[in-house]
Amino acid sequence: MSETIQHKPNKADSSGNAAAVEISSYLPQQSFIQILRNNLSFLPVLITLIVIIVFFAISTNGIFLTPGNLSNLVLQIGSIGIDGLGATLVLLLGEIDLSIAAVGTLGAVVMGVLSARMGFPAWEAVTVGILAGALAGLVNGILITLIRIPSFIVTLAASIAYQGVLIRLLNNQASLPLTDTSILAISGNYLPDALGVGIPTAVLIIYVIGLAIDYLARGQAGLKRTPLIQVIVQVIATGVVIEGIVALLENAPGPTPGTYLGVPNIAAILVGLILIFWLILTKTTFGRYVYAVGGNLEAARRSGINVVAIRIAVFTLCSMLAAIGGIVEASRGTAVASQITPTLLLNAIAAAVIGGVSLFGGRGSVWSVILGALIIGGLENGLDLMNQGSDTKLIVEGIVLILAVTVDAIIRRTQARGGR
Fold first, then answer.
1. Hey, which of 7, 86, 332, 343 would disulfide with 321, CB 3.0 to 4.6 Å?
2. Fold of the domain built from segment(s) 28-189+264-417
C-alpha cells in the first residue's frame, strides 16, 4: 500500500548522446519472490500485528479479542491514528515534527476555553481550535522552509513554547472540564447501525475503485503496473479486515443487557481523514509533488515544483491534524489540560514509522497508519489486560519502534543495492 516516486538522473553514453530511457512497462514480469521483496516494508508490519493479536489472545484467555475490548481499542487509537497521519505527511518530506503533541493539546485547550469559559457554540469552538493548530503549523513551515532552520530545532522550540502558552491560556488551572454535549459526543457517541455498516463499506468501495482506476490508467499509459494477483490479494485482505472489525464492533455489548455499542464516531473520523488524504496524495498533483519533494528535493526543484509551497503546506496540514487529534482526545477525556501527554508524540511518530513510512522521505502510505496505530494501541491495551505497568509498556513500544526503523534502513539499503 506504499506510494513511492523516485527521480533518477538520465545517463549519457560515451558518445555524449542521451542513453535510451527505460520504459517500465517493458520490464520483465516480476516473480512472486520479487513482488514480496519489493513490498517488504508492508509484510513485517502485518506479521507483527498478527503476532501481537495471537499473543494477547492467548495470554488474556481470549479477552483481547472480545467485541467490547476491541471497541475500547478503537477509542484508544483514535487520536494516535490522527496524529500519526499528520506525522506521516511530514515524514514523507524527510522531515520531523516534534511539536505534534503540543500543538494537539493547544488546539484542544483553545476549543475548551472558547466553549467552557466564553460560551462559544461547539462548532465555532472546534473550528477555531483546528485553525489555531493550522496557524502553528504555518509558522513552523515558514521558519523551516524560508529561513531554513532545521525542522528538529523549530518544532522542538515550538513544543517548549506552547507548553507555556497552554499554562497561560488555562490561567495555571491544571484542567478544564468540557460540558458541551456536542463536543463530548465527538468521542462519546456511536454511529447508527446503518451508518456504522454503510460508511466503512462505502470507504472500502471507494478504495477498490481507486485501485482499479489506477491499475487501468497505468496500463493505458504504458506504465508498469502492480501485478494483478497482488491487487486482488490487497483488495480481499482490506475487505476482510474492514468488514471483520465492523462486525465485531456492531456486537460490542452496551451498558444495558441486550444493547450493542456499534462503531464509534472516532472510527469514522479516523478512516474518513485517512481516505481524504489518501485521495489527495495519490490522485492529485499536490500529492505527487509531496512524494517527489521527499524522494529527491533537488530534482523536484529543478523540475519546476514549488518546493517552498509544498513544504509549508505539509507542515500546516500536519499541525491541523494534530489539533483534530487533540480535540478528539479531549472529547474522550471530557476535559482539556495544560499537561501534555508524555507518550503522545512517541505514539504518533511510532504509528507512522512502524506502519512503514520511511524516515528518509518519499515512501509510505497513509493507510499504513492504521496498522501502526493498531500495533501501538494493541500493545498498550494487551499489556493493560495483563496488569503490566507503564514501565513495561514504554520498554516494549521503544523496542518495537527500534525494530521498525531498523527494518526500514535495511530495506532502503537493499533497494539501493538493487538499483531501485
1. 86
2. ABC transporter involved in vitamin B12 uptake, BtuC (1.10.3470)
